[in-house]
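re: ur question from the group chat, yeah i did fold both. here u go
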Amino acid sequence: MTRPIQLDNDNYRYLEDGDYCYHFLEYTAGGGFKISQGNQQILNLKKRPSSSENELYYKRKAIEFWGDLLSAELNLTASALNSTFMPMPCSKPIGHQDYDDRMLKVLRRMARNTPQLDIRELLLQDRARTSQHEGERLSPEQIASYMSVNQAALVLPIKENLVVVDDVITMGASFKAAKILIERAGIRTQVVGLFLTKTIWPPSELDDWLAAL
């Protein structure tokens, strides 16, 4: 079983003491597909929508994997029914050739046997930007400047907990950007971060040398 594990906020530049964030598996930066199940399933999940049909087959299988994992491990009962689940939008807006609603699809897969779950696209990507793992890492304020709150998703009140669901956490910038926009919109609720994986880095020769001192 892979229960969600609470993150140590001290290890993440943009997380604060009052943030509650959790992850399931680990993603090793630069590790490739074979190093772990977390790497394999994240790299497949992140395949571009413009990829070959063969690659998109593995993307669909990754969506099923993560959705089934969330469904099995979150115990979709009373606490989940008191929560609104929000997929973190990708770095490209709707209509862009690389627009990817993978996190929404993961949540819909998660909820396939619990249709009463509250899933909403609360944030929208307004302009294309380079994704965090492909270029210079943006600050939370910079990331927030590319997004807006989807007012159509606020017709009904947000539930007791708002769960921001994303694929990978490295420093917490995207989660913090989401919180900035949520707070500016006047949404008063407990915001929780739920990540499929957390980034880890493989040991280096320098680490071995320091450990030997």
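okk and heres the other one u asked abt
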Amino acid sequence: LLLELLILLSRNSNRRAKHRTAAAVATYIDRQIELHYPRNLTLDELEVKTHIAKSRLCRLYRAAAGQTIMAPLRRKRLAHAAAQLRATSRHIAEICFDSGFNDLSYFYRCFSRQYGCNPTAYRGK
């Protein structure tokens, strides 16, 4: 009986996952970004948490938010890095990795694109 109950629960949750609205998925993903931006949040992890295939997850998010899932994640990480640059004298590499970036070169490119100057110049302002 327990096995039958678990099977029914699993089927029911899969049905609900297929019928989630784009707005509900976007809200959930935005919340995950807010909570977990410093760590390596991946599409694979979001797929497991939502029980929705990555391609469908990306389509739903784009339909609701008009952007990719990684765009708000990157902006959140860059905002955190900018705040750290203004408030502390920590080394830029520490801030980079603390903000969730895994590559210093990529961090510099993204930061320069977002703020119009590199992190060193931003700190100097």
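fwiw on the second one: The two ends are 67 Å apart (CA to CA). The CA atoms of residues 86 and 123 lie 6 Å apart. idk if thats what u expected
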